Every structure is written in C-alpha cells, then in structure tokens.
Amino acid sequence: EKGGYEHFMLKEIHEQPAVIKDTFRGRLLSDKGLIKMAGIEDNLQKFTNAKRIIVVACGTSWHAGLVGEYMIEEFARIPVEVEYASEFRYRNPIINEDDVVIAISQSGETADTLAAIKLAKEKGAFVFGVCNVVGSSISRETHAGAYTHAGPEIGVASTKAFTTQITVLALIALRLAEAKGTMSKSEYLRNLLELELIPEKVEEALKEDANIIKIAEIYKDSTNCLYLGRGFNYPVALEGALKLKEISYIHAEGYPAAEMKHGPIALIDEQMPVIVIAPNQNHYDKVVSNIQEIKARSGKIIAVVSKGDTQVKALADHIIEMPESTEALTSIIATIPLQLLSYHIAVMRECNVDQPRNLAKSVTVE
Ligand code: M6R
C-alpha cells in the first residue's frame, strides 16, 4: 500500500502533483475563465456580504489558513482573521451573523475545531468546512463546504493535505475576487492559468530530491533550526519548522524573516542552519538582506530559490531550486523541498517517520 515507497509520508509527498490536480478538477475551468464550486456558488452572497471571514483550525491546517488569509485579503479584499480553534472556543470571541467562519481540517475530527464550529453556529455565523475526509464530523457539522481531494493521508505528518488545502483556499479566494470585482480580469485569468500549472511545477520541485538528501546529510545532527519566509511564504516557514520538529525531533522555529532582528538573531552562530524561502518575487531584496545579516553572524543558509537565481546563490551555503508561479501560488511549490528535507533528516536519524512519538493522526480529545 506504500506504492513502492519506504514510508507513507514519502508516498504522500510524491502524490501531490496528482492530488492537487484532483482538487481543482471540475472546479477550475480556465479556458472559460470560471471557478465552480457548489458550496461557494450556493452561498455566494454570504461570502460577498461578509464583513469578515474567520478561519479556525489547528496545526498544519492552521498554517494553510494563514496562506488563505493572505490570499482572500489580497484577492477579494475581505478582512480575514485566523485563529487556533482551541483559543477561539475558550476566549468568548466576538462573532456576528454577518461573519463567515471557515473551518479547515484534514481529518474532520479535530475536537477543538469541531467545538469552535459549534460555537460559531450558536452565534449565528455561517460556517464553511474545508475537509479531506468525506463524511467526517466536521463536514457534517458545517453549513456547506468544499472537500480537498488529497485521498487518504496515513502519515501523521500532514503533507498533501496542506497543499490541497491551499489549493481549495486559492479557488475560493479567486472566486470571491471575481464576484466582488476586486481583481483585474487579466490578473484573475493569469492566476487560473498558473493554478493549472501547479501540479507540473510541484513535480519539478520534487526533482531536487538528490540535492536535498545531500543537504540533509550535512545538517541531520543539528539540534536547532530556523525557518524564515515573508508574505505568502511566512506560513510556509511555520509549516516547514513544524514538519521538522514533529518527525525528526529537532527543535525548529518558523518566523517572518523580518522578525529575526527582534529576537531570534541572538541564536545565530555557525551551528545554526537557517532555511530561507527566497523566491525572486516581491520581497526578494528584503530577504537578501536578511540572508546577509545571518551570514554576518556565521549562520548556515539553506535557501529555497527560483530556478536560475544568482544573487542568493552567491550568499547561501546551499540552494534548492524551484519553479516560480504567482507570489501566492509559489507557497505551494516552496512547501515541497521543506517536506523532503524533514523527511530525509528524520529517516537519517532513524525516527519513526509515519508515526512520530506522542502524536496521533487525529486529535479527537482536547
Ligand atoms: O485533521 P486536522 O487537519 O484537523 O489536524 C490538525 C492538526 O492536528 C494536524 O495538522 C497536525 O498538526 C499534524 N500532525 C501536522 O503535521
């Protein structure tokens, strides 16, 4: 059942080109310039009239929610808040009838997310689910929803669920942008075409595997690791750090790159690998200067860069290349090398990759 792979996690990493395609199949009609998702179409006014959208989730799904926040705000100009379901449910949150709540969950069984949904419903909000497991508790408890089509995810560390969640959120953000007229037609169409190309770009990103194995060899005995990214890649940095800590038990932290100088820079020395997501996009120059700051303190840089990059390459200790897309969608591609890096390091440390200690696939108790 592992399809010839050594672990479910590796199989699931490699399934991403196919399952991302499954997730937009029948929904993304780029030749017609349309996005069609029944759960959104049937409730379009609820979304377009929403004063704000609140995303509730835990763990990796919460990271996907952060990418969703950036996408929905950027494309559809609707204010979005992203909350840990556990905090939301217990802090007497302000929820109104014109709020839309999006609950994201791979398993659809996470206790805190389920409780957050019940609370939001009691307060009169419209609740939309983004789940992977069909017929799960969360998919039944929400008013409407859109499934990710990642297929069964067995590895406890979430991989393909994350990238398909971002895919669904991109579809939602783009559909809302079209409905609200907040994006130019050409920008909208470009995003549809770019989304369609994501599976093949993910496939290309997977080809860096041999290079990533070499990097993993060098850093497998590290005790700490930092992950930095800006904009849409900030949540990707958080997710990269979570992946490393949960399967390899190396302490890792993700930060928005600019937060470095507000504390974490004190940790930098020659023992500290810093993984920087540095595609040649909007924040490139800023990320380059963050890299210079780290190099000046003898930190080791592993940079995830756009194919053909030269500037970061000249500064970094190691580079991992990836194809680019739009700024928003590059977050999906940049996730791939970080998954592979964690995977290989964990295997080299002889960790139980598919079933890390102390973790359960679905957290049905709070
Ligand atoms: O099933 P869910 O998406 O609701 O699960 C949420 C988290 O428990 C989950 O993402 C967890 O953080 C994973 N171990 C991450 O790899």
UniProtKB/TrEMBL annotation:
Residues 43-182, 215-356 form the SIS domain. Keywords: Aminotransferase, Cytoplasm, Glutamine amidotransferase, Repeat, Transferase. It is found in: Cytoplasm. Transmembrane segments: none annotated. Its EC number is 2.6.1.16. It catalyses: D-fructose 6-phosphate + L-glutamine = D-glucosamine 6-phosphate + L-glutamate. GO terms for biological process: amino sugar biosynthetic process; carbohydrate metabolic process; fructose 6-phosphate metabolic process; protein N-linked glycosylation; UDP-N-acetylglucosamine metabolic process. It comes from the Bacteria. GO terms for cellular component: cytosol. GO terms for molecular function: carbohydrate derivative binding; glutamine-fructose-6-phosphate transaminase (isomerizing) activity. Its main location: cytoplasm. The active site is at 361 (for fru-6p isomerization activity). Catalyzes the first step in hexosamine metabolism, converting fructose-6P into glucosamine-6P using glutamine as a nitrogen source. Homodimer. This is Glutamine--fructose-6-phosphate aminotransferase [isomerizing]. It comes from Paenimyroides tangerinum. The gene is glmS.
